[in-house]
Amino acid sequence: MEKASQTAIRILEAFLKLADERGIKATTTRAIAEEAGVNEVTIFRIFKDKENLMRQAYEHFSPGKRIVAYQLAIDTSTAAQTRSGLIECMKFLRTIFSEHPQLLLSGVRDYRRFSTLHDEMAFHALAACQLVTQALKQAAPMLRPGIDIESATFSLLGFLYTTVSWQHQGWLQMTNEKWNDRLESAIDILMAP
Amino acid sequence: MEKASQTAIRILEAFLKLADERGIKATTTRAIAEEAGVNEVTIFRIFKDKENLMRQAYEHFSPGKRIVAYQLAIDTSTAAQTRSGLIECMKFLRTIFSEHPQLLLSGVRDYRRFSTLHDEMAFHALAACQLVTQALKQAAPMLRPGIDIESATFSLLGFLYTTVSWQHQGWLQMTNEKWNDRLESAIDILMAP
């Protein structure tokens, strides 16, 4: 898959949808073909096998690369600017996590079963962790003195992963507006008084 | 399974171990029998079928019930007492989450595939959410004025779920001592100045 063709993307999307509903193992190439409205042979022609298809799905949809490409530059000239820089960064992560929550969850769900895909599956987590850590480090002059960056990173990341995945599971109902309020509170508590 | 016999527990433990390694779907009763050192017939005699075996595994090992049974009584007579009450509560959750992280993860991993087990699978999450919310409500007199309880709940819960599951995945190395430090920082930030 050099350039992602329309067909290839349709196949990857069908794969994601079915894998989310029934798990990767039970997602046969035949079912993918049916869902995508293509011939099963087309799948093998483009992706060779299911493992490669999975790898391409991660490559194409996983937030890892986009997280790494995020232009982080928190303006610490005022507390308000710092605060809004942190909020923007978290909202960015939320937006891309929410697009394909199943990719984050399948990192958990199927991690042990696909050892050759460990790097792809762990990438978004490490990238997100690094981005939040960097954001807090940049914001540090305006944060509470002596704040523990690693602790704050896991509180913010945890807030994000838990709310996004619980909403995906149907365990939590939270409007976007309310989520934004909760996020702002989580940031405010880190800011210097 | 009226009373959990030694054999029954051995079977449930074998199930958990294999389900964690290869997923629930691929964990056949034959493999469970082999792992537990029992005859496959014994499994059917005790548990009838795999779905019931899964239900019993949740009943027996899942932290939900123990979370509900936790005697929460945060002593808010001093800030130090309040702080240590919150820390104890979080350490309790961490201890029972760490015992069988695969049960928490399989709630994510296999949720959509086992709709008849939704209540069992979601129970620990709702119970943990409620416990942390209650703990923060009890502690409120010693917390920052105007603190957003729901936001703080998801920060603390998120911290817990993310660190426990990432350690289970091998994405994060953190000693217990360091985890305790990070947790204390996460609590300290909530306390009134």
Automatic annotation (TrEMBL), chains A, B:
**Gene3D superfamilies recorded for this chain?**
Tetracycline Repressor, domain 2 (1.10.357.10)
PROSITE patterns, alphabetically?
Answer: HTH_TETR_2
Q: Which InterPro entries match?
A: Homeodomain-like_sf, HTH-type_TetR-like_transc_reg, HTH_TetR
What's one GO MF term for it? DNA-binding transcription factor activity
Keywords (A to Z) from UniProt = DNA-binding
Question: Could you say which residues form the signal peptide?
Answer: none
Q: Which residues bind DNA?
A: 28-47
Record has Nucleotide-binding as a keyword: no
Q: Which residues belong to any copy of the HTH tetR-type domain?
A: 5-65
Q: From the Swiss-Prot or TrEMBL record, give the protein name.
A: HTH tetR-type domain-containing protein
Q: Which organism is it from?
A: Dictyobacter alpinus
